């Protein structure tokens, strides 16, 4: 469906969800300004997807096609809540769509969580991917054994990154600062720790399979770890999806493999929850992880939950990466559901506590539904929200800006953001990075500092 009036939308956040929303809004006849905090687009495709997964990153070609459509503009380097305010957007655009993702990490809430050597995987991922806000962080990888807490795909990514061959790393777009540290890493063994059992692991099949195909690390799963309790057995038989079934098959296959003598290894352990990150004194570096053994028990909804037994054990290690999911942060004054860590919404319409929708405000992606699903999941998610926007447009329920013109919006944006980066600016950054990568057979060498990104974009900034 297309609409006749020249309506204009601001989409805040240029990750996959923002791009899918922009594309569908353009198709519906809107003009779109896509705004991002960083001078670079693509969100987690640039700063989340593991650098050794270039095929997944190639989805940016789809977003480049969106950017080439008439009516599209990119405004990078713009912080909502400081450079511009929510109220400013609502004054200038018929519809505002938040696609800001979930930048924070969940916390374990256990003693020792913040000891040196215990890090949030989200920060580690941002660091090795060259996110400008993480480029000065430091990760001590001198320990021989690392424990990665969590059984999701991010846990698999960080485990794999820890044991990649330096030669493999050198061909990726991993940030240079991280290549140096990862190549000199002392980590030889990575334990992936799940609080529930093998049948409940959140890995997808290709990611788990890849753990068994690493160049310099053997995979090790003790057959005893794969003995299923009666609940899991029944669940796997009667309710589980194909992914969970295949995961268990893959794990059983791994458990039969003898070690092939590789220098490194990745171990999977299940039914254990961390209860304390161990170390000397209150803030000495990590020396181990105390875990409690769990059993599974169905809750009132039939979901199998981990319940602690009274058996504990200590795992000696010098590095802990906590990979237990992302969490959203509040954006300016947009209604926020603190309990869920999401923008409050009903089906993509931003609403207040009693579910009354806010005129002209919408949400897509992880900050709408939570940090789940793969990149493509955001396409359907964005389509659902955009259909509501079109419905509201037809019913005359969008904002009514006094001057909604593209010129007015750009003038206002430029007066607030001295270092504004447009799509042309990003193209200049992109070409610069690719050129730097060419002699080394790398897809690109990332610029990781804001001033360097702004310099390469040609944007003149008065920010320090
Ligand atoms: P995730 O898939 O939700 O996994 C989070 C893991 O943390 C689960 O195993 C969860 O266990 C565990 N966990 C949560 N709270 C815990 C606690 N207090 N103690 C111990 N364990 C705890 O999240 P993710 O790995 O961050 O990934 C986010 C999304 O991005 C996922 O949809 C993922 O598939 C996607 N992703 C995809 C790729 C790819 O396609 N290559 C790569 C990276 C990420 P329970 O199940 O027991 O809650």
What are the key terms here?
Rossmann fold; FAD/NAD(P)-binding domain; binds NADP nicotinamide-adenine-dinucleotide phosphate; 2 domains; 464 residues; alpha/beta; seven-stranded mixed sheet; 17 helices
Describe the structure in your own words.
The chain is α/β, with parallel strands linked by helices. It folds into two domains: 8-103 and 328-417, NAD(P)-binding Rossmann-like Domain (Rossmann fold); 104-326, FAD/NAD(P)-binding domain, CATH 3.50.50. The protein has helices at residues 16-27, 43-47, 54-57, 60-67, 86-92, 121-128, 153-163, 166-169, 176-183, 205-211, 230-238, 242-256, 366-369, 377-394, 406-416, 423-437, 450-457; strands spanning 8-12, 31-36, 72-76, 95-98, 104-105, 118-120, 145-149, 189-193, 217-220, 264-269, 272-279, 286-298, 304-316, 319-322, 326-327, 336-337, 342-343, 345-346, 349-351, 357-363. Strand 19 and strand 20 form a beta hairpin. Helix 16 packs across helix 17. It is globular. The chain starts with 7 loop residues before the first strand and ends in a 7-residue tail after the last helix. 47% of the residues are buried. Residues 106, 108, 149-155, 157, 194-196, 200, 202, 204, 207, 273, 323-326, 371-374 line the site of NADP nicotinamide-adenine-dinucleotide phosphate (NAP). NADP nicotinamide-adenine-dinucleotide phosphate is lined by residues 106, 108, 149-155, 157, 194-196, 200, 202, 204, 207, 273, 323-326, 371-374.
């Amino acid at each position: 469906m297309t609409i006749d009036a020249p309506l204009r939308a601001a989409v805040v956040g240029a990750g996959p969800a923002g791009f899918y929303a922009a594309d569908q809004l353009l198709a519906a006849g809107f003009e779109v300004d896509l705004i991002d905090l960083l001078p670079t687009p693509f969100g987690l495709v640039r700063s989340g997807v593991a650098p050794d997964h270039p095929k997944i990153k190639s989805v940016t070609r789809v977003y480049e096609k969106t950017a080439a459509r008439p009516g599209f503009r990119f405004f990078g380097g713009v912080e909502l809540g400081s450079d511009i305010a929510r109220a400013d957007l609502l004054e200038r655009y018929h519809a505002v769509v938040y696609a800001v993702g979930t930048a924070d990490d969940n916390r374990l809430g256990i003693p020792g969580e913040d000891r040196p050597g215990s890090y949030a995987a989200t920060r580690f991922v941002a660091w090795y991917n060259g996110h400008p806000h993480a480029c000065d962080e430091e990760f001590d990888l001198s320990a021989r054994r690392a424990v990665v807490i969590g059984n999701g795909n991010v846990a698999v990514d960080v485990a794999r990154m820890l044991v990649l061959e330096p030669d493999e790393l050198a061909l990726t777009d991993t940030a240079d600062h991280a290549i140096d540290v990862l190549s000199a890493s002392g980590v030889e063994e990575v334990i992936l720790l799940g609080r529930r059992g093998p049948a409940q692991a959140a890995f997808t099949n290709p990611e788990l399979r890849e753990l068994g195909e690493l160049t310099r690390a053997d995979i090790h799963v003790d057959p005893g770890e794969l003995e299923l309790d009666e609940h899991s057995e029944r669940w796997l038989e009667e309710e589980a999806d194909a992914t969970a079934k295949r995961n268990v098959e893959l794990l059983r296959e791994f458990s039969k493999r003898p070690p092939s003598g590789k220098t490194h290894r990745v171990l999977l352990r299940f039914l254990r929850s961390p209860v304390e990150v161990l170390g000397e004194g209150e803030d000495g570096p990590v020396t181990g992880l105390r875990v409690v053994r769990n059993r599974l028990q169905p809750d009132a909804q039939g979901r199998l939950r981990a319940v602690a037994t009274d058996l504990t054990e200590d795992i000696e290690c010098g590095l802990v990466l906590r990979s237990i999911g992302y969490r959203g942060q509040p954006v300016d004054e947009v209604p926020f559901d603190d309990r869920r860590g999401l923008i409050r919404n009903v089906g993509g319409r931003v609403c207040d506590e009693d579910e009354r929708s806010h005129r002209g405000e919408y949400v897509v992606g992880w900050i709408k539904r939570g940090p789940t699903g793969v990149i493509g999941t955001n396409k359907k998610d964005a389509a659902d929200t955009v259909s509501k926007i079109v419905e509201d447009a037809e019913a005359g329920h969008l904002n009514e800006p006094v001057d909604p013109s593209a010129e007015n919006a750009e003038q206002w944006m430029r007066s607030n953001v001295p270092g504004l980066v447009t799509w042309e600016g990003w193209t200049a950054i992109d070409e610069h990075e690719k050129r730097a990568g060419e002699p080394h057979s790398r897809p690109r060498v990332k610029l990781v500092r804001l001033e360097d990104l702004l310099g390469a974009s040609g944007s003149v900034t008065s920010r320090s």
